[in-house]
Amino acid sequence: MSFRGLSASAIAAITLASGMAFAQTQAPAPYPLDTVPEKMPFNVPYGAPIQAERAQAVIQAASAEAAKRGWPLNIAVADSGANLVAFLRMDGAQLASIPISEHKARAAVKFRRPTKVFEEGIQKSDYKYILTLDDVIASRGGIPLIENGKLIGAVGCSGGTGSQDEVVCMAGAAVINK
């Protein structure tokens, strides 16, 4: 066997062994995927779409929180049909985050849950199947807007870290989610 063949074999063996060791050290998911819940999770009924004036109030509250902290963000509000109703790009906010803020708002509406749920599912529980779902964004910063028990829209923020985006979204959502 040549030196090249021996090196390739050694590298393959080390890679296989390290992969097996990694698989053994990963923590199992907290809930097996085959668990059947008694109630449907995130089963908030859709309501009438948020009106433009209320969406602007959400944007104002979110942008006030972001400005107070010195975080230039993009803030989007989608209605209960996942259509953009209001948007603000704060001065100096990252351009790449414009569509991301909109995507977070749409995903929070379509799936009737905060986008943090997807992030945690992938990061903490290793639920890779989430990556196969259409329109998912596995990054916190998308919060549903629920009024009188009905989902009327969602707010999405982007441009900071996920935790910064989430803090600002929560401030905006507090206008509706009382």
The name CATH uses for the topology of the domain at 52-173 is: Beta-Lactamase
**Biggest β-sheet, characterized?**
4 strands, antiparallel
- Classified in CATH, the superfamily of the domain at 52-173 is Haem-degrading domain
One letter per element, helices H and strands E, the order comes to HHEEHHEEH
The average pLDDT is 87
The secondary structure category is: alpha+beta
For the record, the CATH class of the domain at 52-173 is: Alpha Beta
Please name the CATH architecture of the domain at 52-173: 2-Layer Sandwich
Low-pLDDT parts are 6-30
Strand order of the largest sheet: 2-1-4-3
Number of helices: 5
Shape: globular
**N→C terminal distance:** 72 Å
Rg over alpha carbons = 21 Å
The fraction of residues in strands falls at 15-25%
- Give the helix proportion (percent range): 40-55%
Q: Give the strand tally.
A: 4
Write the layout of secondary structure elements.
Elements: H1 3-25, H2 52-69, E1 74-79, E2 84-89, H3 97-110, H4 116-123, E3 142-147, E4 150-158, H5 162-173
Antiparallel strand pairs: 1-2, 1-4, 3-4
Keywords:
single chain, 178 residues, alpha+beta, Beta-Lactamase, 4-stranded antiparallel beta sheet, 42% helix
What does this structure look like?
The chain contains five helices and four strands. By secondary structure, the protein is α+β, with helices and mostly antiparallel strands. It has a domain at 52-173: Haem-degrading domain (Beta-Lactamase), CATH 3.30.450. Strands 2-1-4-3 form a four-stranded antiparallel sheet. A hairpin with a 4-residue loop joins strand 1 and strand 2 (84-89). Helix 2 (52-69) crosses helix 5. It starts with a helix and ends in a 5-residue tail after the last helix.
